Amino acid sequence: MFVIGNLLSAVARVLDMALSLYMWIIIIRALISWVNPDPYNPIVQFLYGITEPVLSPIRRLIPVYITGIDFSPIIVFLIITFLQNFLISTLMQIAMRLH
Fold first, then answer.
1. Are 76 and 4 in contact (CB under 8 A)?
2. End-to-end Cα distance, the chain
3. What is the SS3 assignment for 20-50?
4. What is the per-residue DSSP string for 51-87?
5. How many C-beta neighbours within 10 Å does residue 10 have?
6. Exposure b/e, 26-45, CB count within 10 A at least 16 = b
7. How far is CA 2 from the centre of its chain?
8. Do residues 58 and 76 touch, judged by C-beta distance below 8 A?
């Protein structure tokens, strides 16, 4: 059973690192959007390409034209924080019990 515990612990750590990295990517995209970046820049295209699939469904739920402010990065930030506090800690606790 300790092998499954180690596997769950490793999955939790990798998932936590991936969520943290994605949170920073969301923050960078939000900051870049304030300065009207060049849409042909490869870095900007990468940031838009990796974040748009997550941000666009939230924009459909809360359209920007109603509020005038794009709340989708904030909502994604809150979802990532929830996943880190709930899912990651749950996986780690299960892994600890299997050791």
1. no
2. 7
3. HHHHHHHHHHHHHHCCCCCCCCHHHHHHHHH
4. HHHHHHHHHHHS-HHHHSS--HHHHHHHHHHHHIIII
5. 12
6. beebbeeeeeebeeeeeeee
7. 30
8. yes
Nearest by Cα to 22 from 57, 58, 55: 55
**Residue 63 Ramachandran class (φ > 0 left, ψ -120 to 50 alpha, else beta):** beta
Q: pLDDT tens digits, the chain, 99 residues: what are they?
A: 788 889 999 999 999 999 999 999 999 999 998 898 888 999 999 999 999 999 999 988 887 777 778 889 999 999 999 999 999 999 999 999 987
Positive or negative, the Cα torsion across 66, 72, 77, 79?
Answer: positive
